Amino acid sequence: IDFIQDARIIVSPTDLSGDSVDLLVITKDLFSLKVVADVAGFDLRRVRLRVSESNLGGTAQSLRVTGLWQRERHPALGYEVAYGKTNIGGSFVNGSIGYTTANTGRSDGEEDEYAFFVRLDRPLVSPYSQLAGGMEISVNHSVNVTRKEDSFFYDYRYNLYDFWGGINLGITDIREGIGRDKRRDRKFLSGRFIQTDFLRTPMQIGDRIDPVYNDKQLVLLQMSFFRQEYYKMNYVYGFGTTEDIPTGYNLSFTGGWHRQLTLNRPYGGIELDKYFVTNKGGFLHGAFRTGAFYRNDALEDASLLIAGNYFTALFPVKKWKLRQQFRGSYTQLNNRVTYFPLYLNNAYGPPNFNSASVFGDRRISAYTESVLYLNKKIFGFLFAPFVYGATSALTFEGQKFSESEIYPSFGGGVRTRNENLIFGTIEFKALYFPKPVPGLQGFQFYINSDIRFRYRTNFVKAPNIVQLNFEDIY
Predict the structure, then answer these.
(1) Can you say how many angstroms the Cα of residue 172 is from the centroid of all Cα atoms in its chain?
(2) Which of 82, 96, 75 is nearest to 51 (CA)?
(3) Residue 143 class from Cβ within 10 Å (0-12 exposed, 13-18 middle, 19+ buried)?
(4) Residue 57's Cα: distance from chain center in Å?
(5) What's the pLDDT tens digit per position in 235-253?
């Protein structure tokens, strides 16, 4: 929960019989009013300001208002208004409803979109929980806020329907005391249905197959085997507060059916995640993803993703603390039909590679970062200077691996955070791309606030086909 930083549960006997206890739950709340801003470029070409209250009157209700000013926009100002409620009726279901003209919804298209959305989500809050699921319904349409010529602007309108749910198998027997729960291994069965209806298709697309602008239906069934436990650590993404680092594994087998225009294909995929914590305090997350569609006795959109993320133990540097991060990934896509090609403007490329002008069918990326946590507070804010280096090798479609292009990057800056306030990390960063790329500035400067650096701590999620550009497994 956003407005609770930490919690402790204390168990105390209530009488001499020993058959009753008191549970004392102590929580540390955060100041729930938040004002954050994101600024891009020295010339202030884009400014985003968000004001939100995450715990209105102590009722776990939230209200968020966002304003976006961008020089190229007409009108220059966009906005978002969203309302949310945590744990509706004690059901662990979280809900939100909102309207946006600032392209902050779940966008399927490449243009700026206005959207109205409704979302419900019930996570698997504990290995002993039985049910999880969610839904989203949104109405979206593109708006030519940058005044493109008609031949370049993609004019479209679509509705999105997304439903999923799952059950934790065997938990009922454990609750009823049929067997002692000596094992922490779990089995989770889930299903998902997604439908995208384009009420207006861009004239540039017409009736041809496209990764985005087609009517689509997806039905998936997934069986997951997982084991999840936690270590409590500090100075991973936070600045000294308690962080829950997961250990265990998740192995999922997914099958289903996908329809896109007149193209109907079965799908199968496998996902494996393994989390390790070393004896010296380091930890590693390894991930494996593979999946493909089948048609005409051949595999189509066959995908492979292998990735790893390693944090070293903390190193003392005088009175400070240093942690090093290494991460890398290998991605390959064969016989592409409806998938996007592999891009670098995502978590698997160099940071802030905000150009989609280069793409291919094989991608190899590496990243390393050094963060120094200082122990000096200024008005409750702690600081952490950092430097990083990153590089990606991209093989263009139809080319040999030996002809891959290399895209290096390096940069650094400082992050700051007040752990008593609800908003996330504030980052001042400068970076440089030495290789010229169309649409990409060589030197960039960013001021970002409310960055949500955190380790993924929920192994159970909605079933999906393997994502090679849009999912961040780090």
Answers:
(1) 31
(2) 82
(3) middle
(4) 29
(5) 888 887 778 888 899 999 9
